Amino acid sequence: ADKLQYFTWSGYELPDFNKSFLAAHPDGVEASIFGDDDDAFTKVKAGFRPDIAHPCYDKVARWNKEGLLQPIDTKRIKNWDSIFPVFKNLPDLQAGDGKVWMVPWDWGNTSILYRTDLVKNPEASWNLLWDKQYAGRMATIDAVHDTPVVAALLAGVNPFDMTPEQMDKVAEKLREQRPLLSNYTTDMTSVEQALASGQLVAAMTWNASATSLKKQGVPVEFMKPKEGMLTWACGFVMLKDAKNVDLAYDFINSRLETDSGKYLIQAYGYGSSTSSAFAAVPKEELDKLQLPSDPEVMLKTTVFTGPMKQNDDLAKMFEKVKAGG
Amino acid sequence: MSAARSEANAGGSWLGLYVLAYLVFLYLPILLIPLFSFNDSIQAAFPLQGFTLQWYATLYGNPALSSALANSLVIAAIAASGATLCGITVSYMDLYGRSPLAATISAIARLPILIPGVIVGISLLILVNLVGFGPSRLAIVLGHILVALPTTVVVMRSRFAAIPKTIREAALDLGASDWTTFRRVMLPLSLPAVLSAFMLAFLTSFDEFIVVFFLAGTEPTLPLYIWSQLRFPRSLPTVMALGTAILVVSFVIAGLAEILRHRGLGASRRTAAVNPA
Amino acid sequence: MSTIAAGQSLPESRSSPAFRFAMLLPGGLVTFFLILFALGLVLFLAFRGNNGSLLGAGLTVANFATVASDPLYWTVTLRSLAIAGLVTLATVVTAYPVAYYLAFHAGRRRGLLLFLVTLPFWTSYLLRVFAWKIVLAYNGVLNSALIESGIWSEPTLAFLNTPAAVVVTLAHAYAPFAILPIYVALDTIPKSLLEAASDLGAKPFTSFRRVVLPNSMPGVLAAALVVFVPTVGDYVTPAMVGGPASTMIGSLIQSEFGKANDWPFGAALSVCVMLVILCVVLVARDADRRFGSRT
Amino acid sequence: MAPDPLVRLDAVSKIFPGGIVGLDTVDLDIARGEFLTLLGPSGCGKTTSLRVIAGFESPSSGKVLLESRDITALRPFDRPVNTVFQDYALFPHMNVAENVGFGLSLRKLSGTEQAKRVGEALDMVGLGDKIGARVSELSGGQRQRVALARAIVCEPRVLLLDEPLSALDAHLREQMQVELKRLQSRLGTTFVMVTHDQTEALSISDRIVVMNKGRIEQIAPPATLYDRPATKFVASFIGTMNLLQSRFVGRDGDRLRFTAGPLPLEAVSETGEAPGEGSVRTIGVRPEDLLVATEAEPGTAPARVNSIVFHGRTLRLHAELGQGMPVVIDAPRRAEGFQFSVGDVAYISLRRGANCPMLSS
Amino acid sequence: MAPDPLVRLDAVSKIFPGGIVGLDTVDLDIARGEFLTLLGPSGCGKTTSLRVIAGFESPSSGKVLLESRDITALRPFDRPVNTVFQDYALFPHMNVAENVGFGLSLRKLSGTEQAKRVGEALDMVGLGDKIGARVSELSGGQRQRVALARAIVCEPRVLLLDEPLSALDAHLREQMQVELKRLQSRLGTTFVMVTHDQTEALSISDRIVVMNKGRIEQIAPPATLYDRPATKFVASFIGTMNLLQSRFVGRDGDRLRFTAGPLPLEAVSETGEAPGEGSVRTIGVRPEDLLVATEAEPGTAPARVNSIVFHGRTLRLHAELGQGMPVVIDAPRRAEGFQFSVGDVAYISLRRGANCPMLSS
Ligand SMILES: Nc1ncnc2c1ncn2[C@@H]1O[C@H](COP(=O)(O)OP(=O)(O)OP(=O)(O)O)[C@@H](O)[C@H]1O
Ligand SMILES: Nc1ncnc2c1ncn2[C@@H]1O[C@H](COP(=O)(O)OP(=O)(O)OP(=O)(O)O)[C@@H](O)[C@H]1O
Ligand SMILES: [Mg+2]
Ligand SMILES: [Mg+2]
Questions:
Q1: Residue D281: helix, strand or coil by DSSP?
Q2: Which example biological process does GO assign this protein (chain B) (predicted)?
């Protein structure tokens, strides 16, 4: 009688992602949604107990530290082998003995989306978001694992492990950027509207925004900065006291099927973690979505946003900078 | 026409213009929502692209939406009933209970207006987890009772205070017990306030989403649904269509409430007329 | 022997315990279990150290020390107070004439007008804020109108993502909350006071300034509180329309509980904010008393 | 009408929205320095008359003249008229001095001059020591006096008072009546006061205006009104009066003889003309003008005593004369040998020399 | 005290929060079937007494007994006592019949029985035809009668009335006084009524309780109270009375002779004991017991007339006797040869047989 409790990003609870699971378990899934995996963590920390959740890779360490997770037995994951090794081999994912903390499912790129008509021949660099020419007409993503990471890259600091002095440098970089920005936001609806209207000329976005605006005929380009795009990956974690472990495995298996990944690519323009899904999507379509046919190659050139050792301090620092400190 | 009145009208016409401008300010943004809900573009910007009903079509028969809507209505109805019940009893006992406990409860009940929503959400989440039922509709209901309580207490308190104290004493004097007095005299007399307290609490719950985020289990409420949809640029026009539908429904509900309130005003005016203070 | 002890001067013998129990039960449960729990938890957390866990560890005043010593929190708190103050000022000042019209000039249109004024409050808050984005945007209604009418040749960015946008949006959102209390206060001013002023030789504006305005102050203060208290802690509106320059204390509290995962510090911050708001409320209440509130 | 009245209402009518008649073609002259009282039942237009004079209402037709100048269109703040409101209408946010000084502060007067006049006005009403008090700290009588001071400090040509004493208790009220009257003679200002208390009107006024349904029924000095009410309405409104349907039986010099059932009455005709023989008129007889005796004598008529009510100095008998005609008699308590109880028959007669008016309805 | 009173207040005190004294050790016996009136200035504790009897306030000390049973701790709804409130306190959401039937509906009575008794009660107050009317459609007097019907339908042992007539206009008020009195004799119920109107109290009551500052000053039937007030307070509160500081000059059988300045007075001593020769007492003299003449005669004293106020049937002279001793005289208007104006000297004397009480303060 118990249904699987699934805690995920809004929009990732769609039934099309797990058709086979639903066929086997007509009761379906009970999904709760979040809009930000920091908020999700807060809610879980306060005692919310789903069976599986869908945070991103960089948060796994924090969830784990809090003792919220149980390792996943990869033997029970049927398509484990079709997952690209880049994802499987991510550090911090291992729990030993073939157990892992998270099963990667979706990934995407973060970069600057800019208006080609309003920004003429920019240098392919994250520095565009620091360009005083465009003061007041740029926006960036309000998340620790995006903007501060870029600032660290530009400041020549390792984003994922830094000394306090280095963090000061990052803060300096961020402070430099604040007056130039129209907004810090995660609200892509507003960002896309603003890019379309010309209010913004450049903004940090996910690749799906690029596809969407191009489809509407807005002259935009998704930059390939020389410092590297950011890549994020998210996946499924199993909560320690999960009541429906069997259902959870069924669910993850269903999500790793080719159909599911293909639907993810086609509907949202984000990457799937399985090679079988990529194989099922025609090459032209992938091109249009600015996705490579072989992510393994591409992901070597991007910066993978993994767990940051000083995440909480960085977050505080970023908040303060945003507030004007 | 009286001199006072003709003078009033001279100043009144300027004021009238101002009020008109103010109404434009109030309604201009609101009326954009229906406008763009018929616009054939996912960009909410001028110039308009063409008339379409497709967003309403997407709206229609969207199970996630209708369940969120149903959820919101049920939660709002229950939370509003709970908050109104508490508002009635708390303010009644504050005014007539003559005990320090009742006065304390009434004072505390008006505090939540000071507590930031995040904190209400988190602490109630901790509480419901301790108690054992976890995030759920029940948890949201509790959260919304807490959020709406100050309003219902203030509304009910001022209404009870406006009933002449001799009315209650007359009932007691005629042999009605405390309970009968409350049920047959005080409650019917404050019915208009009960209704407006209920309406206000209902709307507070229907519009709230910060507390909901923490307390929602697997069934989102409508504001949570709207908020999650607003993250997807493609959903924007559909959300506008949804907003328009809500607008129309609230218009109808507000109209009904207004009619009730008018009756209520009439009733309280009658009370005042019958019992000169 | 008297059955009621002297000194215990209850005006009326008490109602039956069963009745009192039943009537106090719902409110008592909610206040003691929900409200006091929430408040108690915040207070408790505020004195804990952060170790990432649910309730933190140890007892400390370090959180408050940090709040007090870091000028940023003062800046942001002051900014929040300033923005909330501006919102309050804007709301009350623009609402006052409307309330005045309702009380003294509306006549038979009063019911309709009250209805119209309260109606926008019935629409979804998120959508109202979004609608303001459409109005204020680069190619939004306001810019388009200004360009159409030839006042400006090029759209301006000065509307959206500024503190001004926050003020306008919130002033809009809280309009009915300001109009109603002021209207009620104006409506309860005995008409004979106006006549007395006029009788003693006061011209209309003098009557307004010296009689109506002072006597409506309780309503103005009530309106100000109703607008001010929730806006100080708001973070949704600044995030949606405010831009970086309007970050308010609510956002900081929120992010301590979310992104920064430092609940004790977030709790301490919100305790401080609640205290500040409480002070403002007390000052306002004192002013209200001095204006001879009739409530 | 007086040749040069201070205030004149000239055919003033006031129709309120909804067709409610407030005043119906009222002509009224108010003389310089007089104490005029408006008396009448609730809703008869007393307040409306004052409001028209003060300028709070403009008449639907007719004119208001002040010293022969048409002031109908003047706004209240331009009229040299001040009002003491029934609810006092003191400004709750000002203290006593500020209230009293409000009118002066609007005139071009030096601060010291203002303070001096405020002090004088407060002394005049006996509140010199309350100058800094909050309005809420004052008792009803004190508030009333502050309202009075606030009005007189402006030195109005006419002072209007709308039921100024109705909120006070009987004792304070009597005291304030004396004070009002004294103040008026001292200032020489024209007072126009509304009251619904006829004893108050009788004892305080130079002239009384009795109103009914928006019209003036009679204007006269108190004694005239009491002795020679012009209409049944005035007669029944001022004091108690038996209105006896009586048949004219003949003339006796000045005096007209009637019988009310078995009771012989004598009346005077104001106009001198006598009614036709046998015709029926209403004669007004005051209760104190009827005498009671235990024995039938010539000129007496039997009446059954229905109730005896103790009124202090007198006993009020409610009795029934002949064919169910009720009469009220005030018998002095101390008359020797007075011994009646309910159910007894008393023999009543008109006191010799009693002045009974013949009334038109 | 009566051997078996219906209600007894036994040393009842009521101290309100803040130390305000509502009642100060009040002992009061109320007899079965009597019409008792509480009279006194504002704030003297009249309402508080009723509320203690009804059970809305519990005394700070002392006991309330009903037929010798201690009911001090009973809640209002357990006492066989009903109240007619000053503001009527009708339930605005119920019609007339529902209002009147409210008390019955709480007792175990059949519907037809209830309807019958509601009908009877309404007939009794003359509102049989208003049974279905809304409260808001009724006039003040009608509401007052509904409130009365609502209370009497419960057949209380005691009916309490708190200023039931004060909101009515003079005419209606007099009419309702008669009706109240009639109703009380018919029902035989004990009525306890509060009023601040002494004429009302004098004319309606079997006994009057005069209160002052939370204490009872005197309890007596109306005539006794009027003729033999026990204290200066009662004397000045009931009707008008000159309180003359007088020197005892000798005894004349029952009668004690005094002089107030030049004016010779006679008083009776309630107790029979006489004051010492030359000692000074306060003698109460009613204004109507003083006669005025234009010529000095033995037994008269000269007094300067300060003002003459028209009171309808009498003229009230405010005069000054000798050393600044003010006296008030009521002179009948129609006395032949009466001719005074302000400033004249009138010669006043005590009416033969007048009953002047000697007062304690
Ligand atoms: N503003 C108004 N609108 C409509 N009718 C009015 C208004 N003011 C007075 N009236 C009506 O005009 C009539 C006269 O009213 P007015 O106030 O002059 O009576 P009043 O003699 O002062 O009575 P009261 O003794 O009750 O004060 C009444 O019928 C009243 O209802
Ligand atoms: N609830 C209360 N709290 C405090 N003081 C009270 C309260 N009720 C009455 N008093 C005080 O007790 C005293 C007696 O009041 P009470 O109402 O009995 O007077 P009253 O004789 O009825 O006067 P009135 O003629 O003005 O109605 C007054 O001084 C009053 O201020
Ligand atoms: Mg009036
Ligand atoms: Mg009282």
A1: strand
A2: transmembrane transport
The answer to whether B121 and B211 have CB atoms below 8 angstroms apart is yes
Statement to judge: residues E35 and E132 lie in one domain = yes
Strand, helix or coil for residue E39: strand
| Chain A interface, Cβ < 8 Å to C | 36, 38-39, 41-42, 45-47, 62, 65-66, 136-137, 143-144, 178-179, 181-185, 187, 190, 193-194, 197-199, 311-312, 315-316, 318-320, 322-325
Largest CA distance in chain A: 61
User: Do strands E215-220 and E69-70 pair parallel, antiparallel, or not at all (unpaired)?
Assistant: unpaired
Q: Which domain holds residue E349?
A: 240-359
Nearest CA among B53, B20, B209 for reference residue B118:
B209
- Please state, as a whole number, how many other Cβ atoms lie within 10 Å of the Cβ of residue B173: 28
- Is there a contact between C118 and B255 (Cβ–Cβ < 8 Å)? no
Inspect the interface and report whether the beta carbons of E72 and C3 lie closer than 8 Å: yes
User: Quick check: bond before A50 cis, omega within 30?
Assistant: no
State pTM to two decimals: 0.84
Chain A residues close to C239, C-beta within 8 Å? 185
Q: Supply the ipTM of this predicted assembly.
A: 0.83
Give the DSSP H/E element, type plus range, for residue A153: helix A147-155
| Calpha distance D215→D205 (Å, rounded) | 20
Question: What CA–CA distance (Å, rounded) separates A275 from A292?
Answer: 11
Angle of the C125-136 helix axis to the C163-173 helix axis, nearest 10: 140
Based on the fold, state whether residues E228 and E134 are members of the same structural domain.
Answer: yes
Considering the domain architecture, whether residues E207 and E94 belong to the same structural domain is answered as yes
Q: Are residues D262 and D226 in the same domain?
A: no
**E157-170 pLDDT, tens per residue?**
999 999 888 777 77
**CB count in 10 Å sphere of residue D252:** 9
Q: Which residues of C touch A45 (CB under 8 A)?
A: 54, 261
Q: How many CB atoms lie within 10 A of CB B50?
A: 9
CB D282 within 8 A of CB D244: yes
Rounded distance, CA A226 to CA D55, Å? 85
CA of E22 to the centre of ligand 2 (A): 6
Residue E2 belongs to some domain of the structure: no
Between chains, do D312 and E178 touch, taking CB under 8 Å as contact? no
Q: What is the full per-residue pLDDT of chain A (325 aa) written as tens digits?
A: 488 999 999 889 888 899 999 999 988 888 888 888 888 998 898 888 899 999 999 999 889 888 899 999 999 999 999 999 989 888 888 887 888 999 999 999 999 999 999 998 899 999 999 999 999 899 999 999 999 999 999 999 999 999 999 999 999 999 999 999 999 998 888 899 899 988 899 999 998 899 889 988 899 999 999 999 999 999 999 999 899 999 999 999 999 999 999 999 998 889 999 999 999 999 888 888 888 878 888 888 899 898 888 888 999 999 999 988 7
Residues in C whose CB is inside 8 Å of some CB of A read 52-54, 70-72, 75-76, 79, 133, 137-139, 155, 157, 160-161, 239-240, 243-245, 247, 251-252, 255-262
For residue B67, the chain A residues in CB contact (below 8 A) are none
User: Helices (H) and strands (E) in chain C — how many of each?
Assistant: 15, 0
Asked whether residue E213 falls in the same domain as residue E161, the answer is yes
CATH of the domain at E306: 2.40.50.140
Indicate the residue among E183, E217, E236 that finishes a domain.
E236
Number of domains observed in the structure of chain E: 2
What is the tens place of the pLDDT at every residue in E21-48? 999 999 999 999 999 999 988 889 999 9
Q: Is the residue at E88 inside a domain?
A: yes
> What domains sit in chain B, N to C, each tagged with a CATH number?
54-266 (1.10.3720.10)
Write down the CATH superfamily of domain C68-290: MetI-like (1.10.3720.10)
Q: Which residues contact E227 (CB under 8 A, 6 or more apart)?
A: E355, E357
